[in-house]
Amino acid sequence: MGDLSEIGDAARLRANIDVFPYLRDHVFEYTAVFPAVESMQLLAAAARDLQAGLDVATLLDGAFGKFLVVGEEEAIEAFVEFERLGGERISAALITRMRVAGSAMTRTREHARVCFARSGMTSDIPGVPDFSESEAETQVPAEDLYRELVPMGPAYQNLACSVQLCPEGASAEIRTPDIAEADGPLGSPFALDAAFHAACVWGQRYSGFIGFPVGFARRHVIRPTAPGQKYAARILPAGSERGENIFDLWIFQEENGVFEVVRGLRMRDVTGGRKKPPGWILEKQ
Known about the structure:
The chain has two domains: 4-120, Thiol Ester Dehydrase, Chain A (Roll); 133-281, Roll (Thiol Ester Dehydrase, Chain A). Helix content is 16%, strand content 41%. It contains four helices and 16 strands. The chain has helices at 4-7, 36-50, 142-149, 189-206, and strands at 10-14, 17-18, 27-28, 31-32, 55-64, 75-76, 79-85, 89-99, 106-117, 138-141, 159-166, 169-175, 212-221, 230-241, 244-253, 257-268. The strands form three sheets. The chain has a twelve-stranded antiparallel β-sheet. The model has no long low-confidence stretch (mean pLDDT 90).
């Protein structure tokens, strides 16, 4: 792509997206949409190619904007917009262009944005919190979860067994599918996507709304997750504000330690209350 120091303080570079069949299993209201985890993978790869020395395993100030619909085309015309920030940081945004109806004009839509820096923040990574199955107030079988709470297609049904829930948090087992096309600098995107599902289910039970990831404060990939593996996830509520739940989450293996941590994950009802959780999942008052 070239070096940002040669391009200037801002650049927009083409980054077309190959639409592999598995992407059509990631759905919102029966429409396939490009996953936030895939957006982060694309932005990390583009930033790594653009600027030597960036720590693409540490993502800061993530924001997920408009859904990017995955249609019948084999590739999506997209761009990555880079901007140099202070403190040796670079902002990277995934954008597409669309034609304004009835005119020759086009406008851009931003789908995801993250920041990268030259030096990571790995010293600020907390250990995995304790969570015993005996603490669980209820368990949700993965089969029920994907049928009624998080209706994804087969490639994204990666929570295994049952999700353990209590007001203090959630615990889940994750199995990453062996899909080579999904691999990248951040590892298998399916592990974090499945952890988002567990956070969504916690919010349905204890907050009464269906939350989707709209941003985060920090994501640290200590070591990339891999296809065809088993992981565990811990999700802890860290507050709520303006109709959002905020979580911290960990993905790890008991024998190999922490693989990644997300701090300040924001989950919001993007339907404006139009979609509600089914009655059986709600905490009884």
